[in-house]
């Protein structure tokens, strides 16, 4: 599979999984983030993901996650060691809400299934594979963009 959108290669689990080392997660930061409302700095604009604007959209979203101290959500498919389950699930819900709000209906439909994409990481990785990767879907989307110009 190679290195994915978060630089984690094929690693999908909590610490101790095979593959690259995942970033450490502070349980106290997760608790604080779960109890607070995510914020965007004044002047920050997270446009709706249409597919063609992946690079800008994903960069702004990653920055928002970093500023709210929840960017670990990009790296972990399972509960990180030491983090409270309720806090982790709350952060999952909040970050998935960003996807619902900041994706067009067509784009969100590719990751809407909570059965197929049960975590924020799974949904984000799928969006990256579709709109940010070098695979055939990304090439096809670029071709559509060029032919509609």
Topology of helices and strands:
Elements: H1 27-35, H2 54-67, H3 85-101, H4 105-109, H5 120-132, H6 136-148
Helix pairs in contact: 1-3, 5-6
| Major sheet size, sense and barrel closure | none
Helix coverage percent: 40-55%
Determine Rg (CA atoms, Å). 16 Å
Give the overall shape.
globular
| Cα-to-Cα separation, first versus last residue | 32 Å
The class by helix and strand makeup works out as: mainly alpha
Strand content: under 5%
Mean pLDDT comes to 84
| Strand tally | 0
Put simply, the count of helices is 6
Notable characteristics:
single chain, 149 residues, mainly alpha
Describe the 3D structure:
This protein has 149 residues and is mainly alpha-helical. It has a domain at 46-148. The chain is 48% helix and 0% strand. It is built from six helices and no strands. It has helices at 27-35, 54-67, 85-101, 105-109, 120-132, 136-148. Helix 5 (120-132) packs across helix 6 (136-148). The chain is globular. The protein starts with 26 loop residues before the first helix and ends with a helix.
Characterize this entry briefly.
This protein is mainly α. It has six helices and no strands.
